[in-house]
Amino acid sequence: MARGPREREERDSEFVDKLVAINRVAKVVKGGRRFGFAALVVVGDQKGRVGFGHGKAKEVPEAIRKATESAKRGLIKVPLREGRTLHHDVSGRHGAGRVLLRAAPAGTGIIAGGPMRAVFETLGIQDVVAKSLGTSNPYNMILATFDALQQENSPRMVAARRGKKVSEIVARRRDASGEKAAAAGEA
């Protein structure tokens, strides 16, 4: 069954894309310099799926289009708590890029810089605190952020891996925090 252009537009309209970086690159040839452009784009559906892509071309719009297509091919699914934040704190790294992502209470907003902010906005996260600890290179920051997001687990995923019920895992975590509070009260 072939999809018409109208169906393709409807499917693509569910995604939000953000241009993270555009870079002008030069190739030196006999007659002078040939300029090209490299674009880095983040694409997401604001419901837990996000991807990034890189595209190069002689013109800026073509580079952005290529990067957007590349991003849509490499989408990942990230579990979100209450559809607004992360389930737990996580760190990621790629090359010299290191990032720390922390879950935040409702109303905090997105506290993150540059490329990480674009990832969270397209992912649909509303409350998160993030810190870049390494390089400010947008490519490495994005890759480190994706490394961290791929490590994110929901209680359901942990329960499935352990062969238990979600209620057992959540109850155990509450008991452990209650014991610590009781021990602190006794001291």
Automatic annotation (TrEMBL):
Name the family the entry cites.
Belongs to the universal ribosomal protein uS5 family.
Q: Which residues cross the membrane?
A: none
Q: What is known of its domains?
A: The N-terminal domain interacts with the head of the 30S subunit; the C-terminal domain interacts with the body and contacts protein S4. The interaction surface between S4 and S5 is involved in control of translational fidelity.
What function does this protein fulfil?
With S4 and S12 plays an important role in translational accuracy. Located at the back of the 30S subunit body where it stabilizes the conformation of the head with respect to the body.
Give any Pfam family that matches.
Ribosomal_S5_C
Entry keyword annotation includes rRNA-binding: yes
Protein's name according to its UniProt entry:
Small ribosomal subunit protein uS5
GO cellular component assignments:
cytoplasm; small ribosomal subunit
**Could you tell me which residue ranges the S5 DRBM domain spans?**
15-78
| Matches recorded under Gene3D superfamilies | 3.30.160.20, 3.30.230.10
Q: Which UniProt keywords apply?
A: Ribonucleoprotein, Ribosomal protein, RNA-binding, rRNA-binding
Q: How does it assemble?
A: Part of the 30S ribosomal subunit. Contacts proteins S4 and S8.
Q: Molecular function (GO) terms listed?
A: rRNA binding; structural constituent of ribosome
Q: InterPro entries, per this entry?
A: Ribosomal_Su5_D2-typ_SF (IPR020568), Ribosomal_uS5 (IPR000851), Ribosomal_uS5_bac-type (IPR005712), Ribosomal_uS5_C (IPR005324), Ribosomal_uS5_N (IPR013810), Ribosomal_uS5_N_CS (IPR018192), Ribsml_uS5_D2-typ_fold_subgr (IPR014721)
Q: Which gene encodes it?
A: rpsE
HAMAP family named among the record's database cross-references: Ribosomal_uS5_B
